[in-house]
Amino acid sequence: MLALTPIAPLPNVPDTLRQAIRQLHAALGPAAAALRPAVLEQACVGYLTLHPTGRIERGGLLAVADMDLPNTTERLWVLDLRHAKVLHRSLVAHGEGSGAVRATRFSNEEKSACTSLGFYRTADTYDGIHGYSRRIEGLDKGQNANAYDRYVVLHAADYASPNYIRQHGHLGYSRGCPALPPEQFKAIIASVRVGSLLLISGPRLTSRWLDGRAAGRRFLARGWE
């Protein structure tokens, strides 16, 4: 298995915020042991930068998927920031265009069948070909802004289950959607109500929302609210 891609600390993040993120990670406990601190930092900085822009209406909740981790591991977390709790942790599939056990290619293009990195706002739910699903809106121009039109959504898939791993040694692949286990998808989709923030992180993630100074100002003023 290839080594995980190193993630440099974000620039301009105040020490007070870095310390708060370290404390949050510790408080999340064993359920977040595999959530890499650098990925949590990305997610928290993006949350703090985006929230005051009005794009994210639901405060205190943050979902993050680390697509650099192998798809045989539970690499999606839904976090309650105010109470430092892991609400959900689950497997999540990536797009077949992005690679095999490890996702290495990412695209915003139609018909790429790739996962797109970046920050997303959760939108409405509907009943589609995969049943109960939630649409997501990409907030990073050039990286994931086509997600809504591509019908990249949160939905259940049999190929995103522990049983599939036992049979095949890895998860199956979506057309770019972060597909969820049938046993968990309803609870996860319900928890990330309209206006919640999702980060899909992976190698070479860039985003205008990874603004350490803006995040520091927001945290000083409002904490995780």
Automatic annotation (TrEMBL):
InterPro entries: YkuD_2. It comes from Hymenobacter sedentarius. This is YkuD domain-containing protein. It holds the Pfam family YkuD_2. It comes from the Bacteria.
